[in-house]
Amino acid sequence: MRAALLLGLGGPEMLQLRDDVPVPEVAPGEVLVRVAACGVNNTDINTRVGWYSRSVTTGTTGSTHREASSHDVGWSRGGLSFPRIQGADVVGTVTEVGGGVSDDLIGRRVLVDPWLRGGRHSGDSRPASYLGSERDGGFAEYCSVPSENVHPVSSDLTDVELATFACSWSTAEHMLQRVDLQSGETIAVPGASGGVGSALVQLAKVRGAWVVAITSAAKLNDVASLGADRVVTRQANRVPEDAMEANGGPFHAVADVVGGSDFGGWLEALRHGGRYATSGAIAGPVVGLDLRTLYLKDLTLHGATVYEPQVFADLVGHIEGGQVRAVVGGVYRLEDIHAAQEAFLAKRYTGSLVISI
Among 23, 90, 157, 196, whose Cα sits 20 to 30 Å from the Cα of 354? Predict the structure, then answer.
């Protein structure tokens, strides 16, 4: 089969397109998916450049592999084996099932939940690993996954549109479930034009929340079209303050994938008893925390990474119910994966980029 192989940590040159890669074998309890499309996400860049390593303290860039330690570069903070096929946002058709799996799945169009939980209890995050990181993913013509990870989906959306959902939208759904966002509450969404950010805006509106979204001046109209109640232009040293002014006061919740120097300001922008959730730190993972802000305001901070399977099932329900729309920022061929990842880092698009297989 054709596949883009990641040969090791480094720049885009470490991705090599091959047409002689063996089709994955299907073990008992697994299925084989013929991949139709696969989204591009931060995790693809972060894995390639080793950003998850504790030795990296800067934001997501194309050069952090120079700082990374090879011993803790994966999602599970363990070493990775190469070559590896990346790609977490798989949509495709089941073509083969392993022992113990119903033949009813064959021929079904499916979305793949990228979290691999090792067959353990859903609440146990310890054995979890990630598709395209610890296990080969969807930048290939075929991908094998545990049968419990495939979700048949009934939707008029195209394969490319469906490929925008798995990683970014499940992350967003998890963040909102973590902060238990309720109808009528207010939430700030920094980085609202990206895959997770644009999903947060729509999913927060599905819940009936008041959304203040933050983005660049060039993307104001794009983000407004997602349904945000107020859109704030990102300005240096003023982001939380401007967002709170647009909101007319402090927020019930903040859902943040940006991190960096604004972290402390977002805690100050929360009302008493407010909730903060993070699932990324594209502006930098090492932040300052004034513990007085945390305890005097009775704040709750949430990390949002490994979710229970129901989170992904809830997301599929939103899709099938037509409550959300896909935001495709660009489509690339597998042969153009270098250009796709470079475009991802340039951040000139809104929504998600997709590789059409």
Answer: 23
